[in-house]
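Predict the structure of Beta-galactosidase.
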Amino acid sequence: MAEQIAYGGDYNPEQWPQEVWAADHEAFSLARIDTLTVGVFAWAHLQTGEDAYDFTTLDAIVARIVAEGRKIVLATATGALPPWLAKAHPEVNRTDFEGRRHRYGQRHNHCPSSPVFQRLSAALAGRIAQRYAGTPGLIAWHVGNEYGGACYCDNCAAAFRLWLRARYGNLDRLNHAWNATFWSHTFTDWDEIEPPSALTEHWRGPNHTAFQGITLDYLRFTSDAMLRNFTDEKAAIREHDPSTPVTTNFMGMYRPIDYHRWAEHLDLATWDNYPPNEHAQARMAFTHDLMRGLKDGAPFWVMEQTPTTTASRDVNPVKRPGVLRLWSWQAVAHGADAVLYFQMRQSRGACEKYHGAVLDHTGRTDTRAFTEAATLGGELERLGDATLGARTPARVALLFDWDSWWAAEISDGPNRHVTYPDVVLGYHRALWEANVDLDVVPVTADLAGYDVVLAPLLHMVKGDLTQRLAAVVARGGTVLTSFLSGRVDVDDNAFLGDDPGGFTSLFGVRVAETDAQPRDVANPVTLTDPDGADGGAALTADGHLVMEVLVPEGADVVGTYGADFYAGEPAVTRYRPGGRAGAAWYVGTQLAADGVAWVVRTALAGHGLLGPYPDEPELEVSVREREGVRHSFVLWHGEEPVEVAAHTSGTDVLTGRVIAAGETLRLAPKDVLVIREG
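Done. Here is the predicted structure for Beta-galactosidase.
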């Protein structure tokens, strides 16, 4: 098949008799399916005992795919334990947060620190790689599946202590990092350290801990422990295949694993797109950008999405007509070089028997799901290789940091209703609605190419980040941060000085007091253009949850509180150090969406970065560029038709229509244009 966006998904023919396979492949051809992921949960039938392997079924599956000329993503089959392994080695089962040793069942059910699991999973990955390396059409190895969860067993405790030794070197450094003189916690032997759980440091669940340093390090350790499982299997693959990309499927904005710590070990980033509801367009855009940012802007894959409905929630609505197409093109617009499904044919039993699929239980090709999937397949075929490898020409960066996420949410005070994703997504939505091409990047990223850098709720300051943000301002760029930023160091200890610690001189402001209020309390913030362009108050927007009272030390006051004893005091500031063009914004409260949008757009406008259609909040525009050729994706998420003036000239790849800049575009609900500019 010709090069194009990889299209297909997770296929489990082992669940069906072989006479069904021929009909499946006929249907796949009708839908322009060119890529199949196989073997994800095949451990139990590939290995029936510690030294007993049987590849008969997988051989037949792979041979049929090769004969059909399709591409293969081959899994290492270690996404769930087989029953015999859990029975023979009970220590591979996890111990949960409450200290209960689990018995066999479900998936995500292994202890990542189990030597038995480490040995046998790597051995299976090696066997599969040895057998199938060099198979025609093999385009990627898929290790494990949706890594996640945590274990608190004795093996994990021992591994945690080794991890701490490597991190701190000696107990004096560890005790200092954890502020262990508090509550008589000074450790005198490594074996005294226990994993933080409901039996030790936690009293009301995972986020309520007596020692944030211990809990933060266990979160880091758990992420690294599962990463070791991945790298063990990857190393086993590389013994037999030195070049085919190796990956695993991430889960977007997933709290338990720091994907930035994993990124360098993956050859390409992939993720499974299951939004929480049908109005999550901005959230999906953010997550696509987050995944693309894992590999310095390189394209990613959507490894899974549902063609119709999920089966994991209390209520599972079906995707409305046009939504599958729209969301798939949104992924491509944000950098996807593969659009894959879970699943190709519905399972006949167990918990995913009602999960949507390209083919239902009967294998019909006249369903709406199949027809929409086939239509999309035809459009991707028309696009061909035009956007493969293309990147997003971003001049705006949004920083995302798992350490800040963890540290902010395990903190006692000031307000547990504050959640890191809500704050970050609020600022991202303001950028998304302004149709700004942006990168979501780690705090370690090179910021030299960005004119505007947003770092909301950057609770933890690590390394040389302060200096790199200051460099953005010094060269005329803009930096924006928010309340509760710059509060703790890499060990989650408070800075000994004015808040925001490490940021005070950068933002020209200090925090005098931090007030917290329940969700239903709002404090109005009056925002005024700092350059006086509006001649007065521009907007009044509510502040919620946390209200920091700010003391400018060189910064201009942009917003003031309207209620409580600090009415009239600064809430939002902008600092232009030395009168230069660069600017540093500080937002001292969780502004409502209209307030965030005003602040963000005011900052963007100073660099001429407002995108097209900023007054059509559901009209999304995103650009991918390769070798000077730009494709502009126009995505209409609205429920009613809309008319707008074309923001660029070019040819719509999907219809062949020639478009002139300024001409009227009539977009139907869920409509998509892919304009090759020029």
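DSSP finds 17 helices and 29 strands in the chain.
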